[in-house]
Design goal:
Radius of gyration: 14 Å
Mean pLDDT: 89
Length: 116
């Protein structure tokens, strides 16, 4: 019981609502970082292939990226990760990460497209 309380202690309420609204369940908070967004053209192409289209608009701008481990798992029984991007305090999008996959990204707004 105490571990669950500690794990959920750093989960932002807006992030929780955003992720739950997409049909996912957060297991635990991982980290938060502030970065100036810079992406290689290959990375942008990978995002576009995964229907993640919000990134280009924020290149060169400082964004906050918060990562969470999800309760949902991939076909190898590894937990998925979601990265929530914010600009000036507003959620601008999210990217999902599949462990041990290349490129291993997915659009968390389209859960039905991901085969688990």
């Amino acid at each position: 019981m105490i571990l669950a309380a500690c794990a959920s202690q750093n989960i932002d309420k807006e992030h929780l609502a955003y992720i739950e609204n997409l049909g996912w369940t957060i297991q635990s908070f991982d980290s938060t970082e502030h970065v100036t967004l810079a992406l290689a053209s290959e990375t942008i192409a990978n995002y576009k292939a995964a229907t993640i289209n919000f990134m280009e608009e924020y290149i060169g701008k400082e964004v906050t990226i918060t990562s969470y481990t999800l309760k949902e798992k991939d076909s190898e029984n590894d937990h998925l990760t979601v990265f929530i991007y914010e600009y000036q305090g507003e959620i601008i999008g999210a990217i999902g990460k599949i462990p041990n996959a290349t490129p291993g990204i997915f659009n968390p707004t389209n859960k039905t497209a991901l085969e688990l």
